[in-house]
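Exercise 7. Predict the joint structure of the components listed below.
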Amino acid sequence: MARASTTSDAFNAVAEPRRRAILSFLALQERPVGDIVAALRIEQPSVSKHLRVLLDVGLVDVRRDGRRMLYRINAETIKSLHEWTGTFERYWQHQLNRVKERAEGQT
Amino acid sequence: MARASTTSDAFNAVAEPRRRAILSFLALQERPVGDIVAALRIEQPSVSKHLRVLLDVGLVDVRRDGRRMLYRINAETIKSLHEWTGTFERYWQHQLNRVKERAEGQT
DNA sequence: TTGGCATATTCTTATATAGGAATATATTCT
DNA sequence: AGAATATATTCCTATATAAGAATATGCCAA
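Solution:
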């Protein structure tokens, strides 16, 4: 079987570097497709396809403005990713503490 | 062109649901491969292959214990994912504030 | 050494892309 | 209506899997 569908969930969607770049760009503010094309230098059809994936998994929202489509990030969905990685938080804190303790022991 | 390689970075590695399940299981404590096979009911070769990917991107570490291999999560790498999603944190806080303000306005 | 347990790797196959090219759709302006 | 602008979709292709089956490798015990 092949890999899971990118449209199946947010984790798959952000696995693609260009999609992460688009999200980071949109984090600054709401933007029309053309701005993304210009800023990231990705072909317009490619940008539209990536936006479609991001939209399907709920990582962005859109609204029409004349003939332009304004995209913006949907923080709630990004938050769900953040929360999953956050479940491991106490482990890196442990590791950090161990490093600290070793450092302090040397003084 | 096809999708990026799963071994290229941690984002791709965690895009696979079974690999996330393995990481969550390992979060509890260091475990031999056999425990993962039993707990998650995934074929042993499949588990080994997933662990290989996780190891390649640095999401887990291993050490040998007799004929068993003990895997554990590498929190540092998971932290890097957490930090990326964290760059959007202020946006979901904004959204939350807006929801709050609306709710308060109704009282 | 031989047997056996634990894990890893190889090979094959079905499938899901991601990019490029070409085209379609939607909307505004004249 | 017809042209121009902005964005989306379709078609095609090369590629990277992920699972399954079979096999290889590493290590311990008798």
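Discussion. The interface with chain A takes residues 3-4, 6, 11-12, 14-17, 20, 23-24, 27, 73, 75-76, 78-79, 81-82, 84-89, 91-92, 94-95 of chain B (CB under 8 Å).
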